[in-house]
Design brief:
single chain; 331 residues; alpha/beta; Spo0b-associated Gtp-binding Protein, Chain: A; Rossmann fold; 2 domains; 6-stranded mixed beta sheet; 5-stranded mixed beta sheet; 7 helices; binds guanosine-5'-triphosphate; binds magnesium ion
Amino acid sequence: MKFVDETIITVTSGNGGRGCTSFRRERYIERGGPDGGDGGDGGDVILKIDPSKRTLYDYRRQKLLKAKNGEGGQGKQRHGKNGAHCIISLPPGTIVSNADTNEIIVDLTHTENEYVLMRGGMGGRGNKRFASATNRAPRYSQPGIPGVEMRLKLELKLLADVGLVGLPNAGKSTLISRMSAARPKIADYPFTTLTPIIGMVEPPFGEPFAVADIPGLVEGAHEGTGLGISFLKHIERTGILVHLIDSSQIDVDSPLTAFKLINNELSKYSQTLAQKTQIIVLNKIDLPDTEKKVEAFIAAVNNIQVLLVSAATGKGVKDLIKLLSSKLTKN
Ligand SMILES: Nc1nc2c(ncn2[C@@H]2O[C@H](COP(=O)(O)OP(=O)(O)OP(=O)(O)O)[C@@H](O)[C@H]2O)c(=O)[nH]1
Ligand SMILES: [Mg+2]
């Protein structure tokens, strides 16, 4: 199972500017020679790896990207300005192909951090360049060469940045549907989620990030009980785990039972998972009688930060998104 972010964009390199036809016109100088300058070159389309990017999100919105045209040449041999390049910053791992032929152009994991995809059109030559012994006053210059348009397919295998873990029914799928546009199945029976789902979360500031919702974990998950083990590997490479707990199910006499059970499964599966940054989130705080249970839990984990949310009403979810975003940026 892989999660793929994919989008198609259209890129265009800049047109070359026109060469200029012009003659020197100055007082006291009769029949001044040709002095038309060359047009500027059109801008290139350049692909660049930007390690701070994690998704192709920007290019879902902005699908037309164009380099600037070169400016025309002018009299007095003035060269037209070259057009600005169009620089497309992409996250590491992006595979770029020709959307019409599906041919892979470049895999941005295996390349230098900059790749010139298309050169801009060359500027045309001004008439000055055509002057020769036999034609001292050429009355022509070249037009610039037009830029080229191309449709590109961008593909990125997404690695989730955040993994949601918890018992079945904790509300993981409800939470991901609150945080992102993902619409997993939600129901009041355990094991509703059967395959991992990924959702893109857009924080108010900063880069979007990917959250993975996996099936609920149960005791013995590391040995394959429940849907268990095959899904834990999907969250092994995430930066952060959100450990979600149904606050209405907390037993005040032994508030950490569910929390410990899950952590035990994680550490039996792999130390990498066990040692990940974990954000503890108590869910369903909209339900009656959760206050005492929440208090008991907080007292039992002393000093560890605990967030309170209701995935159902959305309460606390913004704060969770902000916290995750800031932790990911620091990583
Ligand atoms: N009252 C209340 N109910 C919630 C909240 N979050 C989830 N639920 C309910 O809890 C039940 C389980 O929610 P899911 O999101 O399917 O739980 P899950 O953790 O994804 O469960 P599995 O996929 O089986 O592991 C559903 O009936 C949800 O409507 C909440 O904040 N408040
Ligand atoms: Mg679910």
